[in-house]
Write a structure and sequence with these properties.
heterodimer, A: alpha/beta, Rossmann fold, 2 domains, seven-stranded mixed beta sheet, B: mainly alpha, two-stranded antiparallel ribbon, 68% helix, globular
Chain lengths: 399, 311
C-alpha cells in the first residue's frame, strides 16, 4: 500500500519533471543529456553530489549519521585534491522519514540541482521510492544501507541506475536464523514485525524461511504498524506461546519501546533483530531493557583493522560520537561514488553508472565492496550482542 | 487463562486513556453539539507540556512530587489551550451553521499537528516547536528493579496501575462536578437548551468555556498517563487516539458522561481481545468496525437516549 502510493507520487513527480524539461526533447530516451549540464559547470567547477536523508522524524539518527559519514568522506577527498581535479560538493535534503518526500527530494536533486550522483537512503521503503527516479532520470544512485532486495531489482530485472554498498536481507535474515539455531541452539522463536514497512516485512520473511529450513519452529508471528506505541497486546499473545527468542526486525525507536514493554510484562527471553537496531538512541530509550539481545549489523567500530580505526578516530574528532553503521555506510557510499567518478571517462549518467558497476574489492570500512551483477555488495555481516546497555561484537558471518 | 486476564489488564489500561479523552468529546458535544476534532491534538499537547515541564532546567530525580507537579502543570496548560481554542476558533462561529464549526475544528487540529512539526524557532531552554522527530518522555516515577506487580501470572506494570487509579479518580471527580455542583447543573442546563438556560440567568459563554477547560485538562492527564508508560511522543500521536476516543464517545452515547467512560473501557478491551486472539494487524480496524456497527444498530449509543431531530 505504502509502496504503491510512493510509486504513484514518484510517477507524478516524474511527470512534473518531464514538464520542466525542454519540450523539444525527442522521444522516450532517458532524460539526461550526455554532456555535463551547464549549471554544474558554472557552479564553481565543483562536482555536486546529492544526498536524501531522514534528518528528522522517526529514524532521524540514520539520516544524521549517514550525512555525517558522507561529509567526512567528502572532506577527506577534497583534502586530497578532489576528483578529476575538481572539488566535491554535497547537497542534502531532509525527507523526514517519509517515502513520498524522499521521492520528491530525489527528483529535485536529479532534475533541478543536476547532481552527478544520488546517495541514500538508509531505509528500504524510501530507497524504493527514490529508485524509480534514479532510473527515470538516468542519475546513478547508491543506496547506503537499504537491504531490501527490491531496491536494486524491479520485477526480475536489475535496475540499471541503482546500486548499494550493503548486503541484502535474504543474507541478513539467514545470518540471524543460523545464529539462533546453531549458536544459541533455539527451537522456538516468535516474530514481531512492522507490517507497513518493506524492510521489516522482507527481513522477517527471510528469517522465518531460513529458521524453519534449519529445523526451528516459528511459534507466533505478530504485526504492528509504524507509529504504534503500545505493543502489550502483541507481546501478551507472543508470551503465551512461550518462545525462546523474539525476532523484531524493526527500527530502533520501536525496538526500544518493545523491549521495555516486554520486560514490564515479565518477558525475559532475548530479542533479536537486524541492522535497523543500530543507533545510539536504541540504548538511550531502552535503558537496559535489551540486555541479552542480539542483532545483525554491517560493521563494528571494534574492528581493529587500521582503516576502520582511522575512520572511527576521525569521525570522533569531527562529531564527538562513535560512528554507527549508517555513518560507516554513508562514508563508504561516498567513497565508492568518488572512486567511480575518477575511473569514469566523464561524469554523465551512463558513464558513471558503468564505472560504479565495475567497483571491485574497494576497501570500505564496512568490508571489501564488490558490486555483483545485481548491483548489490557481497559482504560479511557481524552479530552484535547487547550487554549492560552496550553493543558488543560477537562474531562475523561470511556470505 | 493467564493470557485472557493479561489481555484484560492491557485492555483496561488502554481503555482508560480512551475514556479520559472521550469525556472531552462528549462534554463538548453535550453543550455545543460540536465534534471537537482538535481534542485528540489537545491530548498530544498535554503529553508535550509534560515533556517540557519535565525536561526544562535539566529535569530532576523521579518522585511523586515531581510527577504531581508535571501532571497538574500539563492540565493547566491544556485547560488554557482549551479556553483559547473555544474563545478564538469556535465562539465567533457559534451562530453559523454547525458544519462551519466542524470544519474549523479540523483546521485547529491541523494547526496543532503541523504547527508542532515546524522546525524549532528557538532551542533554549528547550526546542519549540518540537519538530517531527519523536521525543522521549522523562521518567516521572522510578519503580526500581521491579517495575511490575504480579498476580497469578498476570503482570501489571506499576505505572499502568497508578495511571488507572488516577484516571478513575479523575472520572469520579468529573462525575461529582457534573451531577453534584452548581456548575454541573448549569452545564446540564446549557446542554438541554442553551437559549432557555441563558434566559434563566445562566452565563452560557462562561459555562461553555469551562466545559472546554475541563475536557482539555482531562485530555492532558490522559496524555501524561499514556506518555509515562509509553514514552515515545511525536506531534501526530494524538490523531489515532483522538479518533478512537471519538468512537468510544459514540459507542457510549455521545453527550453522555458515564457513557464515554464505559465506551472507552469497552473499546480498549474489545480492541485488545480481537487483536490478541485473531491478528494484531486488525487492531486499528476494530475501532472503526465498532463505529459502523454502533451507527447501524444503535445510533444513540449504549447509554444514549434516542431523540427525534425536529426539522
Amino acid at each position: 500500500m505504502r509502496f504503491a502510493s510512493a510509486m504513484a507520487v514518484a510517477a507524478l513527480a516524474l511527470a512534473a519533471a518531464g514538464c520542466e524539461r525542454k519540450p523539444a526533447a525527442p522521444g522516450p530516451s532517458p532524460a539526461r543529456a550526455p554532456t555535463p549540464s551547464a549549471t554544474a559547470e558554472a557552479a564553481g567547477d565543483s562536482i555536486l553530489i546529492g544526498h536524501v536523508a531522514s534528518l528528522t522524524g522517526d529514524q532521524a539518527t540514520y539520516g544524521v549519521s549517514s550525512d555525517n559519514g558522507i561529509k567526512l568522506a567528502i572532506a577527506e577527498l577534497n583534502a586530497k585534491g578532489g576528483v578529476k581535479g575538481r572539488r566535491l560538493a554535497l547537497r542534502t535534503y531532509d525527507d523526514e522519514g517519509i517515502p513520498e518526500k524522499a521521492a520528491a527530494a530525489a527528483t529535485r536533486l536529479a532534475v533541478h540541482d543536476q547532481v552527478a550522483v544520488l546517495l541514500g537512503e538508509v531505509a528500504s521503503s524510501r530507497s524504493l521510492a527514490m529508485a524509480a527516479i534514479a532510473d527515470g532520470t538516468g542519475v546513478p544512485m547508491i543506496s547506503t544501507a537499504s537491504t531490501h532486495p527490491r531496491v536494486t531489482r524491479d520485477r526480475g530485472r536489475t535496475r540499471p541506475y541503482v546500486f548499494r554498498v550493503c548486503f541484502v536481507d535474504p543474507f541478513q535474515g539467514a545470518v540471524m536464523a543460523k545464529f539462533a539455531r546453531e549458536h544459541l541452539r533455539l527451537a522456538k522463536v516468535a516474530v514481531l514485525r512492522d507490517v507497513g514497512n518493506d524492510y521489516s516485512v522482507g527481513l522477517a520473511d527471510f528469517f522465518v524461511a531460513r529458521f524453519e529450513e534449519l529445523g526451528g519452529t516459528i511459534v507466533s508471528d505478530q504485526g504492528f504498524k509504524a507509529g504504534d506505541r503500545d505493543f502489550q497486546v502483541q507481546l501478551t499473545a507472543i508470551a503465551s506461546t512461550r518462545p525462546q527468542m523474539i525476532y523484531v526486525p524493526a527500527y530502533y525507536a520501536d525496538v526500544a519501546l518493545i523491549g521495555r514493554q516486554a520486560r514490564e510484562l515479565g518477558i525475559g527471553v532475548p530479542l533479536a533483530g537486524g541492522d535497523g537496531w543500530d543507533s545510539d538512541r536504541l540504548f538511550e530509550i531502552a535503558r537496559g531493557a535489551l540486555d541479552g539481545s542480539y542483532f545483525t549489523d554491517h560493521y563494528t567500530h571494534e574492528n581493529p583493522a587500521p582503516l576502520v580505526q582511522r575512520f572511527v578516530q576521525r569521525y570522533r574528532e569531527a562529531y564527538g560520537a562513535v560512528p554507527d553503521a549508517a555513518a560507516a555506510l554513508g562514508y563508504d557510499a561516498a567513497r565508492v561514488a568518488a572512486d567511480a567518478m575518477s575511473r569514469a571517462p566523464d561524469l554523465s549518467g551512463p558513464a558513471l553508472r558503468e564505472a560504479i558497476g565495475k567497483t571491485k574489492d574497494f576497501p570500505g570500512v564496512t568490508g571489501r565492496i564488490s558490486l555483483d551483477a545485481s548491483h548489490d555488495a557481497v559482504k560479511p555481516a557481524v552479530v552484535i550482542g547487547i550487554e549492560r546497555n552496550v553493543g558488543r561484537y560477537l562474531t562475523t558471518v561470511e556470505p | 487463562m493467564t493470557e485472557f486476564f493479561q489481555h484484560l489488564v492491557n485492555g483496561v489500561s488502554v481503555g482508560t486513556i480512551y475514556a479520559l479523552i472521550a469525556l472531552g468529546y462528549t462534554m463538548v458535544y453535550g453543550v455545543l453539539k460540536l465534534i471537537n476534532f482538535a481534542h485528540g491534538d489537545v491530548y498530544m499537547v498535554g503529553a508535550f507540556s509534560g515533556y517540557y515541564l519535565g525536561t526544562v532546567g535539566g529535569g530532576g530525580q523521579p518522585s511523586f512530587i515531581r510527577a504531581a507537579y508535571i501532571t497538574l502543570g500539563a492540565m493547566i496548560v491544556c485547560g488554557l489551550l482549551g479556553y483559547v481554542i473555544e474563545r478564538f476558533a469556535y465562539r465567533p462561529l457559534r451562530d453559523q451553521a454547525r458544519l462551519t464549526s466542524l470544519i474549523t475544528a479540523i483546521g485547529v487540529s491541523f494547526l496543532l499537528e503541523y504547527g508542532f512539526q515546524l522546525t524549532p524557532w528557538f532551542r533554549e531552554p528547550v526546542p519549540f516547536p518540537p519538530g517531527p522527530s519523536p521525543r522521549f518522555f522523562p521518567t516521572l516515577l522510578d519503580f526500581g528493579p521491579a517495575p511490575s506487580l504480579e498476580f497469578l501470572g498476570v503482570t501489571v506494570p506499576k505505572i499502568d496501575a497508578l495511571g488507572l487509579v488516577l484516571a478513575l479518580a479523575l472520572m469520579l471527580l468529573l462525575q461529582h462536578i457534573v451531577y453534584r455542583t452548581r456548575f454541573g447543573t448549569a452545564m446540564r442546563a446549557v446542554s438541554f437548551d442553551p437559549q432557555v438556560a441563558g434566559l434563566m440567568g445562566i452565563p452560557v459563554n462562561r459555562i461553555i468555556s469551562m466545559t472546554f477547560v475541563l475536557g482539555s485538562a482531562l485530555a492532558a492527564a490522559a496524555g501524561i498517563i499514556n506518555a509515562s508508560s509509553r514514552p515515545k511522543i511525536e506531534p501526530l500521536f494524538g490523531l489515532m487516539s483522538g479518533l478512537k476516543a471519538f468512537v468510544a464517545a459514540v459507542l457510549g452515547g455521545i453527550g453522555n458522561v458515564p457513557g464515554a467512560m464505559a465506551g472507552g473501557l469497552l473499546l480498549g478491551v474489545t480492541e485488545e481481545y480481537v487483536a490478541g486472539y485473531t491478528s494484531s494487524s486488525y487492531r486499528d480496524a476494530i475501532a472503526f468496525a465498532v463505529l459502523i456497527l454502533v451507527l447501524l444498530l444503535r445510533p444513540e449509543g449504549l447509554f444514549g437516549r434516542a431523540t427525534v431531530e425536529k426539522v
